[in-house]
Amino acid sequence: MTRIVSGFAGSLRLAVPRSGTRPTSDRVREAIFSALDARDAIAGAEVLDLYAGSGALGLEAASRGAASVVLVERNPAAAALCRRNAEAVVAAAGSARRPRVRVATAPVQAFLDAGGAPVDLVFIDPPYDLDEPDLARVLAALVPRLADAAAVVIERSTRSPQPSLPAGLELERERRYGETVLWWLQPATPSQPA
User: Fold this and answer.
1) How would you write the pLDDT of the chain (194 residues) with one tens digit per residue?
2) DSSP track, 128-142
3) Which of 28, 37, 86, 142 could form a disulfide linkage to 101, CB 3.0–4.6 angstroms apart?
């Protein structure tokens, strides 16, 4: 069972695709959102959830105060579930300020290549079979979309190598939770001329 952990939609159950996705465990989601809450990175944030699956990460951010969330999922059946889950989360906001949630049924690379407004928070939880050169291309396409203080969280198997980072991104930290590893990235600090 996947559910929203906290915020106005706390305890809401989310539909999960029957196959083809690997939902983030409650333990890992708790760790991600505890860290994001500690740095005050969610309230009012513009969020991208790439390879969204059920949309659990992006919708958790919406429940906790993100201003807008885009769930990007290429599988039409999974994207339909994302829409259903998004409708339930937005409805749970009641009279509170409702987050804007949109589902983009598109390959992640094509979505990023189309450009768009700057984002503050990005979740990347690709299928394990996504190869490293493809992930590197996604990260390179993401760099121009990042706000100055953006946070990027990549979730992979501990058997995956550390992602190759393009110019414009740097590793902030790495955390392991059982078979899952999280890489926290941030925009690279511009080098100062000598």
Assistant:
1) 788 899 999 889 998 887 656 677 778 889 999 999 999 999 999 999 999 999 999 999 999 999 999 999 999 999 999 999 999 999 998 776 789 999 999 999 999 999 999 999 999 999 877 899 999 999 999 999 999 999 999 999 999 999 999 999 999 999 999 999 999 999 998 764 55
2) TTS-HHHHHHHHHHH
3) 86
Residue type at position 115: G
The DSSP symbol for 18 reads: S
Q: Please state the CATH superfamily assignment of the domain spanning residues 2-187 in this structure.
A: Vaccinia Virus protein VP39 (3.40.50.150)
Residue ranges of domains in the chain: 2-187
Q: Extract the tokens encoding 163.
A: 């992602």
Instruction: Please give the model's pTM, rounded to 2 decimal places.
Output: 0.93
Structure tokens at 144: 């121009």
